[in-house]
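Protein modeling request. Please complete all fields; requests missing the sequence field cannot be processed.
Requester role: graduate student
Desired output: 3D structure, token encoding
Chains: 1
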Amino acid sequence: MNLVKKDRSRLTAAAMGRRSCDLSIENGRLVNVFTGEIYDAAVDILDGVVVRIRERGERPQLPSAHVIDAGGRYLVPGFVDTHLHVESSLMVPENFGKAVCVWGTTTVIADPHEIANVVGVEGVQYMLKSGKKQPIRLFQLAPSCIPSLPGLEESGAVFGAEEISRLLDEEDVMGIGEVMDYYGVSDDDKRMHDIIAEGDRRGCFIQGHAPTFTGDRLCAYICGGPVSDHECVGFDELYAKRRMGMYIDLRVHSREQARYLMKAVEPGIFQDTVAMCTDDVNAYRLQRLGSLNRSVADLILEGMDPVKAIRSATLNGARENGFSDVGAIAPAYSADIQIVDDLSFEKYPHMVIMQGRLIAVDGEYLGAPAKKADCSLGNTVNYVGINGPDDFRIPAEGRPLRRVMVVNKGYEENTPVYEDLFCEDGFASIPEDRRGKLNYICVLNRYGKANKTIALYGDFGLKKGALASSIGHDCHNICIIYADPEDAYVAVEALRACGGGVCYSEDGSVKALLELPVAGLMSDMPLDDVAKQCAEVENEIARQCGLEFFSISMLIFCTLPVFERYTPTDLGVVDGPRKKFVPHIF
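Delivered output (586 residues):
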């Protein structure tokens, strides 16, 4: 699939020197992702397309309208991020694109299943509309699992084949997003079969998500339609998926991850099916470290050959998604080019060129500056049946004690862990000397249904106050981890008032608040504002709670039931892979 419209006659004339080009980049060191070579070269560009690579001092027959002197710097293709959720950046697409392009990313394949879980098709359409106001190539996928596990959790929308079909007909929707119900696919569940069939009917890309799958399950999953996976967690799994022909989207957020993933990437002669993605990167990390460049940098620091890392982050990702003119610097390819001082990727590129247009220099975006975005989705925090602190307590129901499940313990042993809580004044309570070792966790439906689950969470470390978030993957019900029910009530009321976000309350008042009014997931503000607010909230929460470190991610993934663990949802505590509820209170 070609992404750039081409006038072949104009391009061939320019390649033959019969027509002047729009831009030439002179004195570069070209990183060739086809052969693995690095050599002196110049690049001629017309209509946003590379028309000629000149070597050995060759000069153009006609002068170009504009010339950039690379000054001996490296010429690297723009990065292709094969899987991410724009919502995780805490920014809307128009501000996300302006923030990520300065780090060298020029093509992104996004799955908007976060906002789809909140407001359905309308949310995806908002992401598409906002995405047209930014400089990079930003594709969306039709979210496949809304909600991720029907019947075990409730969200703001439900997608079946009809909704997928409607979205696949939208411009800039290029396939089906990560198919998270991996057991459903391998068991040929009708819902998943019908959703994938909509993609098959159109010949669309079908993105995968199948952690831990190997053997028969993996083969069945691949036969079911998905072609990629970004959830590999170990050598055996990753290498097995490579052997079965799956595309592997390396998700590298640290040098430690880079180290163990490399062990499964390096074996074998061919690495054509290894691409790269970021998945979830918030504004604070994006501002400080970048995006896919940071993943590439970590792999190189751990010993991967720089050209192999670059190829994974460019050409391999383009080919995975069926793009035939993106991911390399070569004739007939889109002129998406980074000009970089070295191949460490730990700092901004000197220049970023997107389809022949200079869009960033030394970390500064050259287009219209990011600003407060428009959004008409309204307030999506709509919980019911909460009238005060007692609604966040565990009622005694006439018993002297209640046995309550500690949801983050015991899954590997297939033996749920319970704690006995003594009851007083009509409610069961965590003993004072157990605060921090035990906290309450509540998942509260925010879509107008009186669904609520309260259980226990072990070793979170919160000795006072309450943390609440309207980000709670993937249904994005409100998740609260708390020591004090009074503060839990204060925190959720603050979220309702501002339309969603992350809040810490203590002693009856709000101490830190990150406002995310766009579907309760994103800010309408630019990167610098969001990053500053995110850092302030995380640091304040860590300080107030006496924690060495706090990240919003410590809270927002507690409610994702597709992983192999016990997970609280608004309907109960779930054993996600086995698709069943587990008794959580006696």
